[in-house]
Amino acid sequence: MGISGACRDLTILSVTPAGPVGGQHGCYYLEFDNPGLAAAVAGQFVMVRPACFGSDPVWPRPFSICRLTAERLTLFVQACGRGTDILCRLVPGDAVTVWGPLGQGFGLEPEVPTVMLAGGVGIAPFVEYAATHPAPHNLALLFGHRQPLTCYPFAELAQVAARAEAFEEKTPDDLPRFIELLEKTVAEYAGGLIVACGPRPFLVTVARLARRYGARAQVSLENRMACGVGGCLGCVEKNVLGQYVQTCTEGPVFWVEELSLSEDA
Ligand SMILES: Cc1cc2nc3c(=O)[nH]c(=O)nc-3n(C[C@H](O)[C@H](O)[C@H](O)COP(=O)(O)OP(=O)(O)OC[C@H]3O[C@@H](n4cnc5c(N)ncnc54)[C@H](O)[C@@H]3O)c2cc1C
Ligand code: FES
User: Fold this and answer.
1) pTM of the predicted model as reported, rounded to 2 decimal places
2) Residue 1 — very low, low, confident or very high, per pLDDT cuts 50/70/90?
3) Closest ligand 2 atom, residue 235 Cα
């Protein structure tokens, strides 16, 4: 599979904390002016490397395209480590190299009832998905989260999708109730289309439920990536045949039946 997308030196337009939390593990919207990137399919991603990374960290970091128009690229980033902490402390005017859109995005079937299943920052690609969906009356969202709801672009999505439900996991004891809700939703959309993005355990559960109900479901993996363009094998995932596939070029979005998708992979 060939390398797609363009490489651009962009400048930061704004870095805005999402909701009241900010700080450590807070989420931020990063905006870039006139990105000059080709139109994206929701679920595609960009690799991002601020000039100030220097030689540490060496590698760029991957982020879903939260929103891309001719005028603006928006990323929704959780500060959770070295690279993201640096990114979320950038200021307007800082230089960042961005390349993309990369990878394979979500399927979009306007006439088919579709549910977006999102966990935490996995909500990011669904902003673009909902914004570009031609029939939002066929679109629903179920969102599981730990931080306050205002830390995520939930309200924005709830305005577009016909149905939107959020479930806050305050303690680990809430998890079984969330999984029950996921199961009910997967069963309801078994004849439609399910698109999911979130942490790996969440996606493993979605895949298990989709298999149980014979549902058509796609999951977007957040495997660690180094090059983002098929050159390093850093991002591989096992498929059902036991072969390794590159998530950066063949994914990050896969049909669940393509993958073995186990917790320990
Ligand atoms: C296709 C794709 C799309 C993504 N979209 C988004 C997005 O829209 N918003 C967002 O906030 N994040 C997204 N991520 C995850 C993001 O790339 C990582 O959080 C980031 O690379 C971590 O870099 P760091 O230097 O801050 O972390 P490090 O300092 O390198 O690591 C800190 C901690 O984060 C963990 N970590 C590192 N990389 C990942 C990863 N890929 N997934 C989960 N945990 C990781 C490490 O295990 C470690 O515990 C996406 C990842 C992929 C592959
Ligand atoms: S990140 Fe390098 S091959 Fe996928």
Assistant:
1) 0.94
2) very low
3) 4
